[in-house]
Amino acid sequence: MKVLNVETQSSVKRKLSVLVSKDAVDDALRHKVEEFRKVAKIPGFRKGRVPDSVIKNRFERDIKHEAEIELIDHTINDAIEQAHIKAVGSPIIEKVDYSPEGDFTYTVLIENIPEVDHIDFRGIEIKRLPVPPVTDEQIHEALVKIQRRLGVLMPLEEARPLRENDLASIKLIELDKHGSVVKVHDDLLWAVDEKLGKDVYGQIAGMLVGEKRKVTANEAKDVSYKVELKAIKYIKYPPIDDDLAKTSGTYNSLEELKSALKKDIEEEIGRINRLMYQDIIIAALLKRYPIDLPVSLVKNELEHIATEDEELKKAYARNEKSLVESRLKQLETYVRIGLVTRIFFDAIRTQENIAVSEEELKSAVEDMARQNTDTAEHVMEKLTKNNDVDTVKGHLLNDKILDLIIKNAKFIEEKGQ
Known about the structure:
The protein is α+β, with helices and mostly antiparallel strands. It folds into 3 domains: 111 residues, Trigger factor ribosome-binding domain (Alpha-Beta Plaits); 181 residues, Trigger factor, C-terminal domain (Trigger factor, domain 2, Orthogonal Bundle); 85 residues, Chitinase A, domain 3 (Roll). Strands 6, 7, 8, 9 and 10 form a 5-stranded antiparallel beta sheet that branches. A 4-stranded antiparallel beta sheet has the order 1-2-4-3. Strands 5-11 form a two-stranded parallel sheet. The longest helix is centred in the middle third of the chain and has 35 residues. It is flat.
C-alpha cells in the first residue's frame, strides 16, 4: 500500500489517493473466488468443485466489488496513519480503479480533526473576577451536610400512630384479585409520603406498631396489600462538635474541620471562577485561531451526550418538539465549545510538553479521599476498578494547561475593586 496524494479540500476535509499493489489485489481476488466457490450452485458441477474460470465468468462483477471493499478495509487505516490525518467519521469512497498492470487505486474523502501548529496563548485579556470571602453560614451548611451523612436510623421510642413523613418499617404482602399471595416484602423501610403513593399511605396513616391492615393499591388492577407496621423510625443526627469532626475524617477538633471546609469552599469558588476564565480564554483563542469542526465529529459527540441528557429525555417523552429542538441547540453549543477546548488544550499540551506526574496524581487522590471521608488507598482502588484513573489524569492535565494560560493572561481590574 502506498499513499499517492493527500489533497487538502478544507481545514476539516482531506482527499486521499491510495495505491494497492498487484500482489495484494491478486490475493484478494483469489480469496473472493474461493469464497464464491464454496457457496456457488451451478448445474453440472458439484458444490465446491466449480473451476476458477467458471466462477470468475459467472460472478466477475460481484467478486471485483467485494475484493475492492476488502482491499480498502485492509489498507485505509494504514493509509490514514501514513498521511498523518486525525480522521473522524467514516471515509467516503469517491473512486476506485484497476490499472492495466493489475494495481488497484482508490480515492476517499475523509473528515479530519483540525490541528493548530502553534498557539500564542499569552497576553489574553481577562477581567479579574471577585473572590467573595467564605461566610460562617456557608461553613455551617457544609457541617450540616456532614451531619446528615452521618445520621443513624433509630426506632421511635414514643408510642404513637404512623404519620405522614414518618419512616415506616413495614411487612408488605401483595395479593392478586383472588386474594392469593403474589409476593412478600419483609421489613421494608419506606418514607410514607414517598414510596407507597397517596392511595396507600392514606389508608395506613394512623396505624400503630404491630397493627395489620389490608389496603387497596389500585382498584382498577385489582391489586391489594396486607400491611403490618413493624416499627416507626427516625434518623438521629450527631451533634456538631469535636466528635463529629473526628468521625468525619482525620480531624482532631471541630475548628480543624471548619478550617478544612473553609479551604474546600474557597477552592470551589476558585473552580467556578476558573471555568468562567476558561470560557473567556476559549473565545479569545477562537478569535486568534478560527476553527471549523467536522460535521461527523459534532454529530457523534452530540448523539452520545443526548442519550444521557435527562432534560432532553423528558421533552421527548412529553412530545414537546420545541423544547427538544431548543435543548438540542443548547447541547450542540456545549459540544462545540468542548471540542474546540479539547483541540486548543491538546495543541498547548504538545507545544509546552505538559504532563501529569505520579506525585500530582497521588495528591489529587488524597484530596478526593479527604473530601469523601475515605482513604487514599480505597479511592485509588475504586478509580482503578472503574477505569477512571485516566479520567482523573485528564482533569489534572486540563487544570495545568488552564493554569498556564491564566498565569500568562493580562488581567484587567474591574472598577471599584
